[in-house]
Write a structure and sequence with these properties.
- With 250 residues, the chain is of the alpha/beta class.
- The chain is built from 9 helices and 8 strands.
- α3 runs antiparallel to α4.
- The protein is globular, with a radius of gyration of 21 Å.
């Protein structure tokens, strides 16, 4: 029988051995089998459970062995939480770096809203920020940002995103418009790819513009005000995802 320490990795005085299956049963209790991406509470529950998994002291592999025996019979929220806990542990082993998450926004005027505002609302920008904040919390020297690019959406997805960014005072969310690359006659987009307007590219061009912007604005060196010497900047990683919440950022 697989056992773990209920009170955490340090195994404090009075900690009780618990069966992993009992913990998985506890975390599963009351959860629906299928996850509803329009419910913010479920996204938050994933992170709450992931935190409990990390604090339980149980090896994630032991938890996965139990939970993934019959994954179709296990709540999707719990399976997502296990993945988030595993990601957090892997991130802890990484050295200092900066990670940029990029995605395109075309026709996201509904999913960027909350469920209260639209039946298909996922509150996708706030949820992505929440997941990344949880993942990187406490990780010294590891930072992140989001670059979202409007690729010609006729329904003002970027305008809705700008309002959310202003309301939440997000400092690490960057909002771009593919049309900017065309208006600035950036050779890679105008000459090499022949873009005259956003319809000539849409999603592909939006992702490339995010990559271009990230590469151009990330410093190649870090300067120390107390030294005449500079050192290479921390590695800069870029990940691509869809705008919806089908993949957790955590």
């Amino acid at each position: 029988m697989a056992l773990c320490k209920e009170a955490g990795n340090a195994t404090p005085k009075g900690a009780t051995d618990m069966d992993v299956e009992a913990l998985v049963g506890k975390w599963s209790m009351g959860l629906p089998l299928i996850r509803d991406l329009t419910l913010n509470d479920e996204a938050k529950k994933c992170l709450d459970i992931a935190t409990e998994i990390l604090e339980s002291g149980c090896p994630v592999e032991a938890i996965k062995e139990v939970a993934f025996k019959k994954p179709s019979e296990m709540p999707a929220v719990l399976l997502s939480a296990i993945g988030s806990a595993e990601s957090k542990l892997k991130l802890q082993k990484c050295g200092p770096h900066h990670m940029t998450c990029v995605f395109a926004m075309y026709g996201e005027q509904n999913r960027i809203r909350t469920k209260a505002e639209h039946e298909n609302g996922q509150d996708l920008l706030r949820m992505k920020v929440m997941q990344l904040e949880w993942l990187f919390k406490g990780e010294e020297g590891k930072t992140w940002d989001i670059i979202a690019v409007d690729d010609g959406c006729p329904n003002d997805s970027i305008g809705l995103a700008r309002k959310i960014k202003a309301d939440e005072a997000y400092k690490n969310v960057i909002l771009l418009n593919l049309q900017e690359a065309i208006d600035q006659t950036i050779p890679f987009f105008v000459d090499d790819r022949g873009l005259k307007n956003t319809k000539d590219s849409r999603k592909g061009g939006a992702i490339l513009y995010a990559l271009y912007w990230a590469a151009k604005h990330w410093p190649k060196e870090q300067h120390n005000m107390f030294s005449f010497f500079s050192k290479p900047a921390a590695p800069h990683y870029i990940m691509y995802t869809d705008s919806d919440l089908s993949t957790d950022m955590s």
